[in-house]
Write a structure and sequence with these properties.
With 119 residues, the chain is mainly β. It has no helices and eight strands.
């Protein structure tokens, strides 16, 4: 299977003052998407994601991973800013987590967290 890789960049995007109710992936970046689990190898090129802001976000997640920044080894995400985020589980008694791979930036008052590589 050949994975088609986009080229270019996404930069200077702000997600602000959002409320999520029972959402599967409240905060997600996935540069390693594959429509068939395990069938795609990571590509050396792709879309560069930088200077993304997540601010004043709250709500509930139906998935265990509420913040999932799955960035490429080849074009890592950088300049990510997370501020005033509070995501909890939609399922009583369950906890949510954050997962960041190859993503760097800064976090302030972020739950769940921290997960970004600080710079």
């Amino acid at each position: 299977m050949v994975k088609k890789v986009g080229r270019g960049y996404v930069q200077r995007v702000t997600f602000e003052k959002l409320v999520f109710h029972n959402v599967k992936n409240p905060i997600i970046i996935n540069q390693n998407y594959c429509n068939i689990r395990g069938a795609c190898q990571e590509q050396e090129t792709g879309v560069q994601i930088s200077n993304i802001v997540y601010r004043e976000i709250q709500g509930t997640s139906t998935s265990r991973i509420a913040i999932n920044l799955n960035c490429s080894n080849w074009v890592a995400c950088y300049g990510i800013w997370m501020e005033s985020i509070e995501l909890t589980s939609a399922i009583a008694g369950k906890q949510v987590t954050a997962n960041c791979s190859n993503a760097s930036g800064r976090e302030q008052d972020t739950l769940p967290g921290p997960c970004l590589r600080q710079y």
